[in-house]
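WARN no homologs supplied; continuing
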Amino acid sequence: MKQQKQKQREKILARLAPEDFVGRDGELNQLYGHAAGESDSRGLLLLAAPMCGASELLRQTYDRIFQRQNEIIPFYFAFSSGDKSARQTAVRFLQTFLLQTVAFRRRDARLLSIAPDVCEISDLAAPADAHWIYQLIKTCKSESDLADEASFIRAAFSAPHAAARGPPVRA
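OK structure emitted
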């Protein structure tokens, strides 16, 4: 029991331990409940002033979903001033999405601490996911028909939608 409780308190993306993240239980529970389908609304908008802890709130929500859910795949991405182009941001978005998906499906948060390139991620995927991940990566590769930058960026940012559709059905 103690080991299970310890595992639920393990930080994954959060920078603070859950017990040190105080005063935001209402917001955290609302975000988690919405992600778990406890809300009738289709969307949820989080508006916050800079430097008020909204990013940590989202990372805490990510950790809670990762630890407590089996079907809801959490995804957290933060835009960075270090990304010098839209294409660089799109590549990082795709890599982050795929790595977080693989880590969740394998139930192994340690995978989030490695930095494989996009093509190596399909090798890390569980067998049930490897095919659709490989297909998504193949679609986004610059050698594909999506060679122009706008198409690549669109395909990379639509990866969560493509993943939600699931693997293609074969006849």
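The CA atoms of residues 27 and 92 lie 28 Å apart.
OK
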